[in-house]
Design goal:
This protein has three helices and eleven strands; from the N terminus they run E-H-E-E-E-E-E-E-E-E-E-E-H-H. It is mainly beta and 222 residues long. Strands 1, 2, 3, 5, 7, 8, 9, 10 and 11 form a nine-stranded parallel beta sheet that branches. The longest helix has 7 residues. The chain is elongated and about 65 Å long.
């Protein structure tokens, strides 16, 4: 009899953003986007970006440091080689956008909307991303480390080479997203919402496995 082999998620090998030759921007991002299709090679720091509403723009080789984004919508925008550090991106919408080699470090992403996005080579570290919406997205080569992702929507996604390290995923939505080969063993996943076929092949620790028995309709009796 042949035995099935345990599926192992391909290793996560993040390519960091290439950030070279940046100069301090003399204008806000909103001012650039009002006149330019592509914003390239700037460092933005310590101000508020308000009421940006644009589509089909490109932001390349830029760093955003201590920026607060307020009431912003950047639909179908391409972000390439971009770093956000200590920024507040809460509730902004980046729907249907593409992010390639993008880092989020110590950022606030409460309720940030990224539905139907394509994310490649993404690193998110020490971020508060409760209620983050990644539904219906394609995510490849992504590393989430010490992030609070409670109540996030990661449903109907296609995940490839994903790592969650010491993350809070309590009550997050993973339905219709295959978790095969993803290691959750050092994260908190209590109350995650997932369908039984989707959780098959996920890597969990003993206590997590007990919590997930409810998906099988089992009752544990001591």
């Amino acid at each position: 009899m042949k035995t099935g082999k345990t599926f192992i998620m391909p290793p996560v090998r993040i390519t960091p953003p290439t950030l070279e030759g940046q100069t301090e921007s003399p204008k806000s991002l909103k001012e650039w986007l009002e006149t330019e299709e592509t914003v390239r090679g700037f460092h933005f720091s310590e101000h508020t970006e308000e009421s940006i509403n644009c589509h089909y723009k490109s932001i390349t080789n830029c760093t955003f440091s201590h920026i607060q984004f307020s009431d912003c919508k950047l639909k179908s925008t391409h972000f390439t080689d971009v770093r956000f550090e200590n920024c507040d991106l809460s509730n902004i919408s980046l729907a249907e956008s593409a992010l390639f080699r993008v880092e989020f470090v110590s950022c606030k992403l409460l309720g940030t909307n990224l539905p139907e996005t394509v994310l490649n080579h993404i690193c998110m570290t020490d971020c508060n991303a409760q209620y983050l919406n990644l539904s219906m997205s394609k995510i490849n080569q992504a590393h989430f480390s010490t992030c609070n992702l409670r109540n996030s929507d990661i449903n109907d996604c296609r995940l490839t080479s994903i790592a969650f390290e010491h993350c809070e995923l309590v009550e997050s939505e993973f339905s219709h997203t295959s978790l095969k080969g993803i290691d959750f063993s050092n994260s908190h996943i209590e109350g995650i919402r997932v369908n039984l076929p989707d959780i098959r092949g996920a890597i969990v620790n003993t206590m997590q496995a007990i919590d997930l028995t409810s998906l099988l309709g089992l009752t544990i009796k001591d």
